[in-house]
Design a protein that fits this description.
With about 150 residues, this protein is an all-alpha fold. The protein is about 75% helix and about 0% strand.
Length: about 150
Amino acid sequence: MPIRDKINKEFNLALKKRDKAMVFTLRLVSAAIKDKDIATRSQKNQKGIKDNEVVQLLRKMIKQRKESADLYEKAGRKELSDLEKQEISIINSFLPKQLGEEETKKICEETIKSLGASSIKDMGKIMGHLKKNYPDSIDFSKVNLIVKNLLN
């Protein structure tokens, strides 16, 4: 089932349950998806954005909320920070599961061996291969450190 359909289904359930936080967050997500649909609409693309673009949009929304939560915590506004964290967890539930650190390290080791990489100069080639083959299942903020450690 496409992510967009999952979001709509959960939104309808949240309305029935009167879950205010879920309804609020999913309204924001739906609005962002519709905005992106409109921005990318052309004569060739009438259906809207694809699932991989929805995933990118959700990741961007999570990043924004993490930054906001940090700012709220620094300002001593714990209640607002908690709201942002709650939104993060709701949005996260629609993203594909990411691999753990051990699995990520194993994939990085296999990639380095298969590409014959031996130095930090091969970092771009390794990262390109990983992004092509594992775009949604690996946390690339962790991959950078793992690959550097394996190459050194």
